[in-house]
Task: inverse folding
């Protein structure tokens, strides 16, 4: 994983890959595409490569996939 110093504080811009991500712009968090919740990069576990968006929880992934969000 390409990680920058997470002390940067702002929102990171990432390129989501199959089992990893690249940091395009440094930051300490990303925003869940479904809930709007901030996700620290240390806690980021769920994302869509096709949609290029992060998710806070597995439930958020299911909601997006079912078109509920």
Result:
């Amino acid at each position: 994983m390409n990680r920058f110093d997470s002390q940067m504080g702002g929102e990171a811009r990432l390129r989501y890959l199959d089992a990893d991500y690249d940091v395009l712009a440094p930051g300490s968090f990303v925003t869940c595409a479904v809930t709007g919740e901030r996700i620290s990069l240390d806690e980021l576990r769920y994302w869509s490569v096709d949609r290029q968006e992060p998710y806070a929880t597995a439930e958020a992934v299911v909601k997006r996939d079912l078109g509920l969000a």
